TrEMBL record:
Residues 209-313 form the Myo-inositol-1-phosphate synthase GAPDH-like domain. It comes from Streptomyces umbrinus. Residues 389-406 have a biased composition (Basic and acidic residues). One of its GO terms (molecular function) is inositol-3-phosphate synthase activity. Signal peptide: none annotated. Residues 372-406 are annotated as: Disordered. Its EC number is 5.5.1.4. It comes from the Bacteria. This is Myo-inositol-1-phosphate synthase. It is an enzyme of class 5 (isomerase).
Amino acid sequence: MSAESSVSPSRVGVWLIGARGSVATTAVTGCAAVTAGLHPPTGMVTETPAFADCGLPPLSSLVFGGHDMVDCPLPKRAEGLAAGGVLPPGLPAAVTAELAAADREIRLGGPLSGETRDEDELVEALASDIRDFTIRCGLDRTVVVNVASTEPVPTGTELPASSLYAAAALRAGCPYVNFTPSMGLHHPALASAAAESGLPYAGRDGKTGQTLLRSVLGPMFAQRALAVRAWSGTNLLGGGDGAALADPGAAAAKNAGKERVLADTLGGVPEGETHIDDVPSLGDWKTAWDHIAFDGFLGTRMVLQTTWQGCDSSLAAPLILDLARLAARAHEAGLSGPLSELGFYFKDPVGEGPAALGEQYAELIGFAGRLRGAGDPQGTSGERPGSSGERHDPSGQRRSLPGERR
């Protein structure tokens, strides 16, 4: 049963940071394909019976736009993905109108080379793009989702690009989802702005492959009282992610989430490291290998090895659609603050919550029940415990950034 069967016909914007990347292109193409009945919603948890009657916006109501620094049109980008086996042959041509419509709503991001605008001016320009999109398209609300390439852990006091976009989302009055390991709203300088915004937000770093498997296997070893001695891993990947993660700083940001899952599920970090290698010939495909050494009864030494081969864009795209719908519904229901119940989707979830996938799934299903019981979107029955329930002005009431001149 589709989760769309009893929802309101509101139109919801999905503003993608990195809107012409592989993940964004796959998400826009996939949404159009599922809406047209060309493909089933495989991988979309929100299309399972557990989410029926939750008031999620239908896929047909989603309107896409975003920021990017490249100018390759989405239809051409989709054709390239089809040639690489990421998208089915002929699908880009079947949904070219939808891709072209989304491409018309993509704006140049920042900071630009030789940028002369200060942080506040740049954030305001980015926020203005989002507000204009919401008004121009007649949207009830817009969710901002970061799917841009991973950036290194920032040093110094300047806000990195991901945090500038996150600040712009807050200023435009939009729920925010960080699907990357980049800093985003995690930057200390944005903590008070996020808390005062009255907006829901979720992240960070989507859990699509190796870490998804680790969040299942880690609890298994702990629950069976098997002593893990070492856990080593290797990732081979190409495409934009591979190129970005060739930077040691970006790779360190990515690996931090992978290691955190093991620490949280095993009660400590075992020996071993995770390596990420850029293999351009793999394109959007990746291979993740884990070598787990563990002790059994009477110290018997054993080994488990796993190999995960998948297409990151195809794994991530349905999750992007899930998260956009869930964040939009949370905003409609008056929820604010970190959406910890969405930890099921992330390596490094915001808020407090379990690390084991089974427990995270139980929390997600509980969240579906809360959304179902929220009732009147204008009421307060859906507020998070301890939240202010504050409504953010959809016209984009400005919020101060640290050090902003008012």
